[in-house]
Specification:
By secondary structure, the protein is an all-alpha fold. The protein has one helix at about 15-50.
């Protein structure tokens, strides 16, 4: 049987400003992650183009 501690005090009310700050902080983390992924993709594209520069048929029409 599960025992529940009834003497535990309820969580204090969270202020609206605190929730907005937490949401903004999470948003900035996601934005930083997306920026990092885009930078890695661009770097990979640049390195691929540099490596295969000689083999690209630039005169093809």
């Amino acid at each position: 049987m599960i025992r529940v501690d009834a003497s535990a005090s309820p969580k204090p009310a969270v202020d609206k400003g605190d929730r907005d700050h937490e949401h903004h902080h999470r948003h900035s983390i996601f934005a930083a992650e997306a920026t990092g992924l885009l930078l890695m993709a661009v770097l990979l594209l640049v390195l691929t183009i540099i490596r295969s520069w000689r083999y690209i048929p630039w005169s093809a029409r």
